[in-house]
Amino acid sequence: MKTKKPELGVVGQPVWHHYHSRKMTVVEERKDFLAISGSAAFIEIFLNPAATSNLFKWFVRWKINQFVVMEVTGQRLFSDQDLKAAFGLSDVSGEHGEWIISRFGADVAEQTKYIRWKEYLNIPCPGTGGDGDPNVSVYLSEEIKWAVKNLLEI
Question: Which of 34, 153, 55, 64 is CA-nearest to residue 113?
Answer without folding.
Answer: 55
